[in-house]
Structures are given as structure tokens and as C-alpha cells.
Structure to design on (96 residues):
């Protein structure tokens, strides 16, 4: 005999809000040389179920990859929340 529960599991809609930015930048290799076209990617994905309130501080993923002139790869990945990132008053940029 096969029994079926009287209440079937309902599917729940999930919404995703995605924000991403990508930069191409030069970087210093371990041997001291400078390489161009390193890629820096910053992305945030906020997933939440229907009827739920979106997280006001979703996690942020950060990744970097670049190839040095000698063929070696430099890379790194990390994560943070907005409260862990530096504020604009403590961030410095340079270049043209």
C-alpha cells in the first residue's frame, strides 16, 4: 500500500539580487615585475524566499587573477560583508 501525505510540500519562490563589478588593473608579481591586465571581480548575491525581507548586508565575494610575464599566475579569493570593507575615507586610489 502506498500512502501519500495529506499535505504536499509547496515550492517556495526564491529571488536573487545580484550586483557585480569588474576591473582590469596592473599588479606587481612576486619577482618584482609589473604585469598588466589583472582582473579584479567584486560580486554580491542576495538570495531570499518569497515574502522574506532581503538581507540589508549581503555577503560580498572578491576575486583576483592575473598572469605574470614569466607565465606564473597570481590569484586570490575572499569574502566580506559591507561592514568589514574600508570606508571611502580610508581608501586611496591612484592612476590616470
Amino acid at each position: 500500500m502506498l500512502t501519500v501525505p495529506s499535505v504536499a510540500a509547496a515550492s517556495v519562490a526564491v529571488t536573487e539580487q545580484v550586483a557585480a563589478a569588474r576591473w582590469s588593473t596592473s599588479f606587481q608579481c612576486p619577482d618584482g615585475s609589473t604585469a598588466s591586465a589583472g582582473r579584479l571581480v567584486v560580486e554580491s548575491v542576495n538570495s531570499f524566499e518569497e515574502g522574506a525581507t532581503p538581507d540589508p548586508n549581503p555577503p560580498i565575494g572578491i576575486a583576483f587573477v592575473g598572469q605574470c610575464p614569466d607565465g606564473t599566475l597570481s590569484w586570490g579569493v575572499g569574502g566580506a560583508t559591507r561592514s568589514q570593507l574600508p570606508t571611502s575615507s580610508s581608501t586611496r586610489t591612484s592612476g590616470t
Remarks:
- Confidence is low (pLDDT under 50) at residues 88-96.
- The two ends are 75 Å apart (CA to CA).
- The beta strands are 14-28, 34-49, 60-67, 73-80.
- Residues 60 and 80 are 5 Å apart (CA to CA).
